[in-house]
């Protein structure tokens, strides 16, 4: 008589993505010559939800190719990431990629978040390690984004995964070569496209892209553009990104920093010019950190829309 071996399956059950969500970000990137996407961040408190919702929906009304919602970055809280993402997708019908960070998370929390992404109909997640909190790391389930990528692959097969990369090198990496080697591991773990940290010097980006391709990293790379609309934002951005600020940008901040209106317009012009140059040099995918400012997103978009339309054959 044969016996059936009673095996205990210790693997958690796999989460399947709902049928109805169909536009993965990688498919959007592959479907057009050039794309424009906008990033927003979630509110910090429940009281701030209506204003954040309105900002996100006003930005979505511009009809970018897709949007991303950060995971509690820059003072926001991850509690509202799914809520804001659902509004954008459900109300405006714009595809969304929620971010997910892992450094302050347990495996259980990651799984719960992935479940809520799946229930919200999201087919793409931006997998990040996340900023190290000032008060230290509360959990040690994850060390690097590549470990999160591996877990998403395991728990959510079929989920499209994006990752971050650093044209100026990540501030914790000993040098750019090591950073690119680590990036290769992350891509090999299952990242289908990359999105860069903000940069203000396109030459830095072109050089970086050349190095990625030479290392065999062939996935699409979204160029991350931050319109600097105030001197304070530049300070915060440099602190969080470690990116270099070209002398000509410093001169603009020095000249107009004290005039909110002048510096805002200068930031819009600088970002629009950066994007125009990137598109002219064959960069296909532009990702703008809108800082939840619909007027800034709209101004940048209207400057570059004719170029995008032309390159897309419209
Ligand atoms: N919260 C958000 O929405 C966003 C956050 N970020 C920030 O970007 C930063 C890093 O996140 P990720 O790029 O996802 O992290 P990552 O884990 O890919 O890389 C972080 C650092 O660890 C190094 N590293 C990676 N794998 C390694 C390995 N196997 N061995 C040794 N070193 C390794 C990298 O070179 C890099 O210096 C964080 O500060 C994150 O918060 C960036 C964009 C958005
Ligand atoms: N290291 C790092 N962490 C991030 O979270 C991050 C990046 N880099 N680079 C790409 C985008 C840019 N992000 C940003 C950039 C700036 C702020 C920021 O200045 N936040 C303000 C609050 C803004 C407001 O409430 O209006 C802050 O005080 O932190 C937030 C997110 C999120 N992303």
UniProtKB/TrEMBL annotation:
Catalytic reactions of this protein: (6S)-5-methyl-5,6,7,8-tetrahydrofolate + NAD(+) = (6R)-5,10-methylene-5,6,7,8-tetrahydrofolate + NADH + H(+)
One Pfam family here: MTHFR
GO BP terms: methionine biosynthetic process; tetrahydrofolate interconversion
Cofactor or coenzyme needed: FAD
Coiled-coil segments on the chain, per record: none
GO MF term list: FAD binding; methylenetetrahydrofolate reductase (NADH) activity
InterPro entries: FAD-linked_oxidoreductase-like (IPR029041), Mehydrof_redctse-like (IPR003171)
Record's GO cellular component terms: cytosol
Stored CDD domains: MTHFR
Keywords: FAD, Flavoprotein, Oxidoreductase
Signal peptide: none
UniProt keyword NADP present: no
Pathway membership, UniProt: One-carbon metabolism; tetrahydrofolate interconversion
Classification via PANTHER family: METHYLENETETRAHYDROFOLATE REDUCTASE (PTHR45754), METHYLENETETRAHYDROFOLATE REDUCTASE (NADPH) (PTHR45754:SF3)
Similarity comment: family membership: Belongs to the methylenetetrahydrofolate reductase family.
This protein's name: Methylenetetrahydrofolate reductase
């Amino acid at each position: 008589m044969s016996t059936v071996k009673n095996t205990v399956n210790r693997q958690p059950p796999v989460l399947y993505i709902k049928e109805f969500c169909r536009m993965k970000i990688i498919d959007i990137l592959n479907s057009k010559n050039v794309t424009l996407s906008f990033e927003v961040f979630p509110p910090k408190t429940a009281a701030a939800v209506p204003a954040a919702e309105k900002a996100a929906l006003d930005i979505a009304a511009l009809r970018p190719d897709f949007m991303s919602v950060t995971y509690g970055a820059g003072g926001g809280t991850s509690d509202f990431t799914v809520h804001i993402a659902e509004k954008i997708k459900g109300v405006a019908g714009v595809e969304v990629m929620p971010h997910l960070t892992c450094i302050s998370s347990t495996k259980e929390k990651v799984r719960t978040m992935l479940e809520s992404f799946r229930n919200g109909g999201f087919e793409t997640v931006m997998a990040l390690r996340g900023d190290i909190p000032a008060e230290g790391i509360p959990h040690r389930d994850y060390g690097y984004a590549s470990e999160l990528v591996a877990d998403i692959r395991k728990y959510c097969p079929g989920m499209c995964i994006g990752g971050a990369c650093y044209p100026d090198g990540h501030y914790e990496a000993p040098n750019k070569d090591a950073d690119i080697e680590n990036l290769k591991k992350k891509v090999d773990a299952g990242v289908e496209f990359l999105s860069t940290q903000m940069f203000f010097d396109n030459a830095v980006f072109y050089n970086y892209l050349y190095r990625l391709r030479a290392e065999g990293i062939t996935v699409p790379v979204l160029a991350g553009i931050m319109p600097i609309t105030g001197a304070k934002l530049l300070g915060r951005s440099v602190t969080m990104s470690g990116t270099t600020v070209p002398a000509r940008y410093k001169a603009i901040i020095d000249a107009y920093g004290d005039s909110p209106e002048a510096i805002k317009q200068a930031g819009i012009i600088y970002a629009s010019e950066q994007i125009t140059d990137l598109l002219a040099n064959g960069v296909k995918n532009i990702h703008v950190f809108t800082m939840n400012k619909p007027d800034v997103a709209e101004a940048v978009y209207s400057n570059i829309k004719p170029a995008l339309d032309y390159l897309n054959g419209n």
